[in-house]
Amino acid sequence: MPLWMSHLARAYADLHQFSDASRCIGEVMTTIETTKKRLYEVDVYRIAGEVALLGPEPDVAETQFEQAVSIA
């Protein structure tokens, strides 16, 4: 589910629906922390960075990408 929800967030961002994209990313990260299933965690952070680049606060993207790299 986390990978699909992060792709849904990217789709929302492509449609300029950034609040929905942010909500999806938040749900995904909560799910990862709750379930401790981290198989797609790198991809989720990468996609979160891509969403941030498209959104109104692109400065957040660097943090997301750094997190993805540190996990990888």
Written overview of the protein:
The chain is mainly α. It has one domain (about 1-70). The protein has helices at about 1-15, 20-35, 40-55, 60-70. The two termini are about 20 Å apart.
Concise description?
79% of the residues lie in helices and 0% in strands. By secondary structure, the chain is mainly alpha-helical. The two termini are 20 Å apart.
Gyration radius, to the nearest Å?
11 Å
Count all strands and give the number.
Answer: 0
Residues in β-strands, percent = under 5%
Unreliable stretches (pLDDT < 50, length at least 5) are none
Structural class: mainly alpha
* Pattern of helices and strands: HHHH
Number of helices: 4
Sheet with most strands: none
Which keywords apply here?
72 residues, mainly alpha, 4 helices, 0% strand
